[in-house]
DNA sequence: CGTTTTCTTTACGTGCACGTCACCTTCTCT
DNA sequence: AGAGAAGGTGACGTGCACGTAAAGAAAACG
């Protein structure tokens, strides 16, 4: 019975964004909710796209970059006009993401080492030798 | 013989940033080059920090978040005053990064699938049945 | 020595991603 | 019918991360 479309408020509650944000994304052609009168109704497609938008943002992509990616994710609708172009763009993005992934994995390792070092320091503070902090 | 310090221009060439960016980072206390007269000289420490800054940016962290992370990476200098606090912050960041890593890995999988689909489409355009693009 | 280049500070400008406010329409409920 | 509540359209404001232009000092070069 979920009519497969959602109001702007339902969307906001579901995805933790503001109405302004959804209207903004529409203005940038990232979303294209249907209109009933002048009310927006967000379809399953809009929801799928919004998920990808939010994900892309967490990876540090700009909305414009995300828009280009989204184009690939629904080439089904479109003509093959710019298909190859979009395909190439997506391949580049993939390379970006894989590089980012590798770098992230390395950064996590680094941070873990730092944390391990920090943990040991804390241990030695807690149960270490007499500290002369009461010298004043 | 590299004097272990670099001018602003050397830094820019080395890391692909502008002088403005380096000064901006200094104003935000992300870097603290020494001064010779009023010229900036960037040390090994500054360079290490800059690498981490640029990396953090690629992961979508804000400069403020990065600044907090940097504090951990050189706790060696500092007092243990806010040590535990910083340690906790870093642990949270680690969780963020691990979550991001997992999400990124998933996104890469998704995108790869899309690309595979796209590749097949292109193949069928190229060597598929007669295209009627040569109609006129 | 003067000139050119590099660097400095100060300060206003810019693009992105929204926030906020004012004001208007359209249902919904009692 | 009156009163909210929800949604809409401008349009201006904001925080971040720098860009850019102006004006001066200092170093390097011929």
Question: Which structural class fits the helix and strand makeup of chain A?
Answer: mainly alpha
Number of helices of chain A: 5
Estimate the global geometry of chain A from the Cα principal axes: flat
Give me the strand/helix succession of chain A. HHEEHHH
**If you compute it from the alpha carbons, what radius of gyration of chain A comes out, rounded to the nearest whole angstrom?**
24 Å
Main sheet record of chain A: 2 strands, antiparallel
Kindly report the greatest chain-chain contact and the residue count on each side. A-B, 36 and 36 residues
Assign the CATH topology of the domain at 1-58 in chain A. Answer: Multidrug-efflux Transporter Regulator, Chain: A, Domain 2
Alpha-carbon distance between the termini of chain A? 73 Å
Low-confidence stretches of chain A: 125-136
Please report which band the strand proportion of chain A falls in: under 5%, 5-15%, 15-25%, 25-35%, 35-45% or over 45%.
under 5%
Helix content of chain A: 55-70%
- Strand order within the widest beta sheet of chain A: 1-2
Oligomeric composition of the shown chains: homodimer
Question: How would you explain this protein's 3D organization?
Answer:
The structure is a homodimer of 136-residue chains. Chain A has a domain at 1-58: Multidrug-efflux Transporter Regulator, Chain: A, Domain 2, CATH 1.10.1660. In chain A, strands 1-2 form a two-stranded antiparallel ribbon. Chain A has 5 helices and 2 strands, in the order ααββααα. Residues 125-136 of chain A have low confidence and may be disordered. The first copy, chain A, is mainly α and 136 residues long. In chain A, β1 and β2 form a beta hairpin. Chain A binds a DNA duplex (30 and 30 nucleotides) through residues 7-9, 18-21, 23-24, 28, 37-40, 57, 62-64.
